[in-house]
Every structure is written in C-alpha cells, then in structure tokens.
Write a structure and sequence with these properties.
The complex is a heterodimer of chains A (151) and B (193).
Chain A (H helix, E strand, L loop, with lengths): L1 H9 L9 H43 L1 H12 L5 H6 L11 H11 L12 E8 L5 E8 L10
Antiparallel strand pairs in A: 1-2
Helix pairs in contact in A: 2-3
Chain B lengths: L5 H10 L4 H23 L2 H17 L11 H19 L3 H16 L6 H13 L4 H12 L4 H8 L3 H18 L2 H12 L1
Amino acid sequence: MKRLSKYLCSVNKPDFQTGPFSVRLKYDLRNKFFEQKERKLMPIISFSLAGIMTLMLGMLIIKPQTAYRLNQLAFNHKSNMDYLLFNSDENTDFSNISDHIKPVSGNLNDSPLSMIEEDKSYILHKLKDDANRTIFYISEVKKKVQPRILY
Amino acid sequence: MAKYNEQEEKEIILQAKNDFKAFDYIYEKYMPVIFNYVMYRVYNREVAEDIVSTVFYKAMKNLALFKWRKIPFSAWLYRIAFNEICNHAKREKKLQKISRNYHLETEDKHHDSYQSKNEKSFEFVHTYLKQLPMKDQDLITLRFFERKAFSEIAELTGKNESTLRVNLHRALKKLETLIPEEVFNEALKQISM
C-alpha cells in the first residue's frame, strides 16, 4: 500500500484549463441572475412613473387647486398672487363687511346713481404681491346690502 | 485579481447575490478550482462542464442561504460539487456502467497526440479509482490530486482528521486490490522512465 501511496504522490496531476467554457458559463450566469433583475426592474419603474403621472393628471383635472398646492409645496413658489387667483372662494360671505361698503354708498348718495335701485352688490379687491404686481378681482356679495335711504 | 482578507471576502460573498463585481470575483477565484476538482473526479470534459454549470447555478441560487459557520466558502462549493457528481452517477444508474462509459470516452479523447505523460499516469489511476465508492474517490482525489492537507479535507468534509486518515487507509487498500500487480509494476516503470 505504501507503494501505491508513493505512486499516487508521484502522479503529476494534469491542470485542466477551463477554456471558453468559463466565459460561456459566466455569461449565462450573468444573464440568469443579474440582467434578469434589471429587466424586471425597468417595467416596475416605468409603471410606477406612469401611475404617478396619471394620478397627477387626474388631480389636475378634478381638483386643480390641490394640484396647485402640491406644485407650491414641491417648488416652494412664494408668490401668493397666483394662489389668490385660484382661491377666490365664491362662497365667501361678505355680508359682514357690508358696513365697509357704506362709506362708498354714502358717496353715491350725492350722485345721480342714487336714484337707481341697487340690484346687486360687488366688492372690488385690489391686491399687491411682493413683486408689486397688482391684480383686481370682483366678488359678488350674495346677501343684499341694506337699501340706502334716499334723502 | 485583487486579494482580500477573510472578513472582506465574507462581505464580498454576501454581496455577490446582487452585485456583479462581487460575483465576478468569486467566480474567477473558485471556478477553476471547482472545475479541476470535478475533472479529477469524472475525467470527462463534457460531463465536468455540465456539473460545474449546475454547481454554480445552485450556488448562485442559494447564496442567500449560505451562512458562515467557520468553514470556508470553497467547502460549500466542494460540497455542492460532490453532491452533483453523486447525482450524476445516480442518473446514470450504475456506477460501473458510467465507469465503462468514461473509459471509452477517455480512450476516444485522450489518445490524441497532445496527451501528456501526466495525463497518461492520471488516466491510469482514474481507471481504477472510479471503481471505488464515491466517498473513497473523493477522499483520494482531494488528498492526492488536489494535494490538500488532512486539516483542509476535514474542513471540506466536516469529518475529523483521524477518521479521514483511517478512511483513506481503507480506500487505498481497496484501490490496491483493484489494480493487478503486473499492471501496477508496468505503471511504476513508466513513471520512473
């Protein structure tokens, strides 16, 4: 048995070269375990982006104000002029500020317009933003103001 | 190829599941080692290529399950390779039949002019070696062809060194009985020439 042991020790082991098989197997493994992942990841990203875009588009159509607020939040846009335009709430009750109109209506007493009965009241707002841009907007006063007493 | 210490290599192996660079490092380091081991065992390039492919597919698939338990990563790969060689033998039903097939195939392929003296002596041993049980084949291959120390084989197989020494002794005895005396003497003459 010692002879056999010695013989086995003296056998020079051949060094087998992997050759092109090594490259081929590496390529196959890469395709199987790495590129497949990338291939799966791309549609997920695309679908997610498409979903977000659809959601934003839907929001823009259904609730533009919310979309606008989101835009404000996202881009930190400080100009409040545009925001006011979007936020001119038509349901605002201006009846409580009818007193403020009185001085104006007082002046009207002297004009020929005082002879005409007031059909509807409006408030004209003049707004200025930080950039000194001016905008006017008119709000309808729903509640009729007190009829002026003609002297 | 860059060399890393054990801790770095451990991290690389953990990354190899998702990082191609880490995988590339592992592949370049261990693929030739495993390929040579499988070739020593089956001595047929086509079969070895099939087995090595399966070994690396399985290793990559189960890399997340691999845990460091004081045994090297190569031991894990050797274990997969050993199991695949056994599976291959089972698939072929009878080990003896495979041996004959191998013999015929090796005769066809290795009678080329480029066959070296090394390969001839290796082929001679392999002819008889493949008639042994799989575990004995594995032990002789690791000890004499892979030139591994008993401590390394113990790491790879999970057995203690003294058991391995006894097993190797028995395996060599079996191999000795398989080789006819006159054929062995002839082989000894050839190797001393």
